Amino acid sequence: MVKVDDVRRLALTLPRTEEALVRDRVKFRVRGLVYVSFSADETLMGFGFPKEERAALVAAEPDKFLMPIPSDERYNWIRVRLAAIGLAEMRELVVDAWRMVVPKSVAAAYLRAPPS
After folding, report:
1. Mean pLDDT of 49-74
2. What was the pLDDT predicted at 93?
């Protein structure tokens, strides 16, 4: 099962990322743009994801993915149950969400030579 510390270890290696605690919730962001956020009980992770693709993802794997809360539906956002994913899938979701908030050149440089 993925934990917040697993995500933290990855997220803090991503260029320009900062960690924030907002209303007792851990969030990772770049210049104020949040790309990963956790529920208060740390069982759900919200992350950046294209709006036009999220309904299909939730329909395909409803035990794993959830639509965003109503106030977040206007954003490119979706949620996942941490107990339902492994480290490899978490890495893919977090890096893809981060790529949505950084300049393309920053993402390209990271993808060419990610830290070990």
Report:
1. 96
2. 98
